[in-house]
Amino acid sequence: MVYYLKLLLWPFAFLYGRIMAVRNLLYDAGLLPSRRFGLPVIAVGNLTVGGTGKTPHVEYLLRLLQSYSIATLSRGYKRTTKGFILADNSSTAAILGDEPFQYHQDFPEVAVAVCEDRVKGVELLLKAKPNVEVVVLDDAMQHRPIRPSFNILITDFFRPFYKDLVMPAGLLREPKAGAKRADVIIVSKCPANLPAAQRESITASIKKYSKAPVFFSGYTYGAPVGIGSESSINNDVILLTGIANAMPLKQQLQQQGYTILEHINYPDHHLYTSQDLLKLKEQIHKYKSQNISIITTRKDAVKLESGELSEMTRLLPIFYIPIEVELLEKQEEFDSMIGQHVLQQFKNVIRS
């Protein structure tokens, strides 16, 4: 059935792919304007729709470059506002979008801004924060009017771009050839024990589309952090998520001995409401004879703790699981590559 559906959608995918290919050709040839800024601008993006793990990789860069005055700029997907906004103490997930709000909460020293137009966004960001030395762009691979100084492409281990199709037959936002714009490609969400032979096979498949060095990353999971009414977590849990792919988290929890009684799975970037929390309270009541906890992600937790929901959240036994990106190998090489790029950009500015 899926095969026949893809077959029916193929003409539309072909047309869309040609349009994106021509668009990229016009930008590559300089026939459409693309703005470069006089400071390191590192873009983290992908070729596919949906979660490939960009957020924890942006956070990796924010930690790596913390010795600089750093800023991050996102579109602010599914926020209730428009235009350029610089995060401040009054910001919420609804105002900024969930991922930028997470950066704002977890990296208070970083200037966090949102804007649909990345060129305008960087201009206004540098005007508001003239001391910024490095800008990290979140999800800007297809935003060609801005020309990053360094492009990091993230591709999901479970659905690598080279096995996918252009929308609507698949999830690719543009043809696979777009990978050639990447300076580095990271295969995300890899199992920790990924065999060397499989890494070599994946690398060979990627190299058909890009000459960029390939790295492999996975997640490390921290101890549960309470944001609700209880200080210790129980083994019987309700999993609450609003992310693109919760399967890696589910597998991790099961490996750690948790019993997932239910999984309340909202769409990616879901903005929680008081009705959602009332529903959650009802679900807990179903298990009143058991001591249960609620586990969620950091991305969901920042929304549950934000604004009017915070009072309701504090009455529920909710915990989130912190995650961080870890490169499976060659981490020092990757870190050095990013550091050298930033230093080289500074030298270029001084020479000019």
Features:
single chain, 352 residues, alpha/beta, Rossmann fold, 2 domains, nine-stranded mixed β-sheet, five-stranded mixed β-sheet, 11 helices, 14 strands, globular
Summarize the structure.
It contains 11 helices and 14 strands. With 352 residues, it is α/β, with parallel strands linked by helices. The protein folds into 2 domains: 2-68 and 133-220 and 328-351, Rossmann fold (3-Layer(aba) Sandwich); 225-321.
Widest beta sheet: strand line-up = 3-4-2-5-1-6-7-8-14
**Beginning-to-end CA distance, first to last residue:** 58 Å
Please indicate the percent range of residues in DSSP E strands (runs of 2 or more).
15-25%
CATH class of the largest domain: Alpha Beta
Q: What's the helical proportion of residues?
A: 25-40%
Task: Write down the overall geometry.
Answer: globular
Structural class, by secondary structure, is alpha/beta
* Biggest sheet layout: 9 strands, mixed
Total strands: the figure is 14
Report the CATH topology name of the largest domain. Answer: Rossmann fold
**Total domain units:** 2
Element order: H for helix, E for strand:
HEHEEHHEHEEEHEEEHEHEHHEEH
Radius of gyration: 21 Å
The CATH architecture term of the largest domain is 3-Layer(aba) Sandwich
Instruction: Name the poorly predicted regions.
Output: none
Number of helices: 11
Name the average pLDDT. 93
